[in-house]
Design goal:
The chain is α/β, with parallel strands linked by helices. It contains 14 helices and nine strands. The chain is about 50% helix and about 15% strand.
């Protein structure tokens, strides 16, 4: 079984790493479109065009399934990508993100706290402008009444400066800490607690920075929910070419083919991770 994974850069590695924990014997082809990042500040038409190019490159690799490990591409280009991939199944990261957030809502008993606890979606500008998360929530739970929605405020915050900093390797830089604080400050001032969903696959690299900036909030992301969704899907349950790791502490054995459209731009921490194995 060959799994294609793509992102604008190194963000999708956070998803790849969770996939490998569950599907350790699968063969992966990872494509990071580093020559064209960031996607999140581009127009919907540009994002669609770049995403189609990535899908076409991976299709040539004869993959059995494609994971779009980029929220921006998942929000704006999923139908176009599915068109390119024809019968090859395509999974995005927005729906799993919603599942991760709702899990956190349940675990934290937030329904009882009603309007005092929001779901803050932190994402790229393009993802925020697409309102993909609000739409996906509505699609998954169409019967949710207006009053219930009103009791569970959804706030979207674009964080356009973060992807360039992470790709620069500034994952613990004082400027990054300051920038994250600036993005979350208005929400922290209004709500002492809440659920923050990292709606960009780059942000799990700096989850601890968000946690520090949002004390008393729960910070979640979609990476493990993507792997869980795949595990539950028809494709994986019925296909015996792929074996689910019985022991999660066992190192994955399947190989990874790495493709970066600008390999020289990778930050040192990502290079080390790739060399040592994700
Ligand atoms: N990892 C991508 C995402 O999840 C980042 C997009 C970008 O390059 O701005 O949205």
């Amino acid at each position: 079984m060959k799994v294609g994974v793509f992102d604008s850069g190194i963000g999708g590695i956070t998803v790849l790493s969770e996939l490998r924990k569950k599907f350790g014997t699968a063969h992966y082809v990872y494509l990071g479109d580093t020559a064209h990042l960031p996607y999140g500040t581009k127009s919907p038409a540009q994002i669609e065009r770049l995403s189609i190019q990535c899908a076409k490159k991976l299709k040539k690799k004869n993959i059995d399934v494609l994971v779009v490990a980029c929220n921006t591409a998942s929000s704006l280009a999923l139908p176009a990508i599915q068109d390119v991939m024809k019968t090859t199944p395509v999974f995005g990261v927005v729906e799993p993100g919603i599942h991760a957030a709702l899990n956190a809502v349940q675990q934290n008993g937030i329904r009882e706290k009603r309007d005092s606890t929001p779901l803050l979606i932190l994402a790229t500008r393009a993802t925020v402008q697409s309102h993909a998360y609000g739409k996906a929530l509505h699609k998954l739970f169409p019967t949710q009444s207006d009053s219930e929605q009103a009791s569970f405020p959804i706030i979207e915050q674009a964080c356009p400066l973060l992807v360039p900093m992470i790709e620069e390797g500034w994952i613990n830089h004082p400027i990054l800490h300051l920038t994250v604080s600036e993005y979350v400050k208005p929400h922290l001032n209004l709500f002492p607690t809440g659920i923050a969903l990292l709606g960009c696959t780059h942000y799990p690299w700096i989850q601890s920075v968000f946690e520090k900036a949002l004390p008393n909030w729960t910070v979640v992301h979609s990476a493990s929910a993507v792997a869980e969704l795949l595990e539950k899907s028809e494709l994986f349950s019925s296909n015996n070419k792929i074996r689910i790791n019985s022991n999660p502490s066992q190192r994955p054995t399947g190989e990874i083919e790495w493709i970066f459209t600008d390999p020289d731009s990778l930050p040192a921490f990502a290079k080390t991770l790739i060399q040592e194995g994700v």
